[in-house]
Amino acid sequence: MSSPTLDQILRAPKVVLHDHLDGGLRPQSVIELAAETGYDRLPTTDAEELRRWFVSAADSGSLERYLETFAHTVGVMQTPDALSRVAAECATDLAADGVVYAEVRFAPELHVTTGLSLDEVVQAVLAGFRTGELQAAAYGHQIRVGTLLTAMRHAARSLEIAELSIRYRDEGVVGFDIAGAEAGYPPTRHLDAFEYLHRENAHFTIHAGEGFGLPSIWQAIQWCGADRLGHGVRIIDDIGVGEDGSVQLGRLAAYVRDKRIPLEMCPTSNLQTGAAASIGAHPIGLLRQLYFRVTVNTDNRLMSDTSMSNEFAQLVTAFGYTLDDMQWFTVNAMKSAFIPFDARLALINDVIKPRYADLRAEAAFAAAGVAAAGIGGIPTGNGTGTTA
Fold this sequence. Notes:
Blueprint: H1 6-11, E1 14-20, H2 27-37, H3 47-58, H4 63-68, H5 70-75, H6 80-96, E2 99-106, H7 118-138, E3 144-152, H8 158-167, E4 173-179, H9 191-199, E5 204-208, H10 214-223, E6 228-231, E7 239-241, E8 247-249, H11 251-258, E9 263-265, H12 267-272, H13 284-289, E10 294-296, H14 308-319, H15 323-335, H16 341-367
Helix pairs in contact: 2-3, 6-7, 8-9, 15-16
């Protein structure tokens, strides 16, 4: 099967599990919200210049420098109206990119500088996502958005944020996360939060193996019990490849693969923070070959100037991936989502696999030189059944 076209990539159903709300604002919205809220520290008020500034500032090779760019986006997200607007635009932007299910994360503790309570922050964001879902549907785009509440790993509010996530888990909050600079702030600092979540039968992911190595991954899994790994790119350090192409997995890598622990890979972002040298050299290529539970994600669409379609387009170019590969990544992500099993299964069987079957049928007809417009009743199906 040949590689998909850019149009096919855009139209393919996609699932994103690792997308930061404060990393995906529209540049024009940042400017307008800054004017509305009195935020006066933007480097420019020209939308295109601001877009380029965010990408350039984030493209430093350092996770710590990358994180500094969020001062501006968080700075304009301090009112209920601003939070709801950003969330609604996030949902519609993802839906327009072909995303059918998204888990978008944000740190409530970062949005209380003007006096909002944590509950008011969460309520505003959840309202915005519901508005965005309805707006997307009005344009013919189906999307479901779940929310992850993030605690900052350098702070001391993780238990409070974990309790907040449980308080709103029947209203759209599907899980918990910790984020921020890894070095010096191990996930074990937040064991009380993770133990609480375990007792509440709750889901959580942990940023690990992005800016720090295998110890961060090991602690996230074995000490904290993470359901998924945010990034997890450094798991490659526990995999040896011989000159003859033979592969040897260390005990941690073997455990991650055997347990089917999902890896929330963000290729473009990983290049910016120095976790990978190029898309072609990104560990996702080998991890996919070895059938790790790999997923493709955006991380921060503004800072990385990216989208799910762009991430897949780069992987298609670098590794020659086909629609079958795209479906494999997408089903991996949907299997790993923090919503109930029946909801995950419905999206896989009723939306993802049939749409990929349609795209494969289109490609087959085009390859045969038959104009798709002259063909009636393109069949649908349940996909390839590729191991995930």
